[in-house]
Write a structure and sequence with these properties.
This protein is mainly alpha-helical. The chain is built from four helices and two strands. It has a two-stranded antiparallel ribbon. Helix 2 (12-26) packs antiparallel against helix 3 (63-83) and helix 3 runs antiparallel to helix 4. The longest helix has 21 residues, at 63-83.
């Protein structure tokens, strides 16, 4: 909230912090220990964490947490496209993260 008030929603640092927030919500810092996990619809339970690996991103979350991360990333991607343009590397990276997150959500 402080970065948003001080710098504005469209400042590069604000967008970076929002993306880091989404990463913090969806990633487990111990992902190297869980290299071959996959997730299915059967893994989803309201209170049970979901464990998935998509490419190099590891997810250990509840469905609600992943939906929150998706909402944040969608907002970041839209702002990056508008401010930086669709060809900018930061925009492309954010789009890739959102795509992987959507792949996980589609599996559950």
């Amino acid at each position: 909230p402080t970065a948003r008030r001080s710098l504005g929603l469209d400042h590069d640092l604000t967008m970076d912090l929002d993306q880091k927030l989404a990463f913090a919500i969806m990633q487990n810092p111990f992902s190297a220990f869980f290299e071959n996990l996959e997730c299915t619809r059967d893994d989803l339970s309201v209170n049970q964490p979901i464990q998935c690996v998509v490419d190099d991103l590891f997810f250990l979350n509840t469905g609600e947490e992943l939906l929150e991360a998706q909402s944040i990333m969608l907002d970041v991607v839209q702002r990056r496209r508008r401010v930086l343009g669709p060809a900018h590397p930061d925009t492309s990276h954010s789009e890739d993260v959102l795509s992987k997150l959507r792949m996980v959500l589609a599996r559950i």
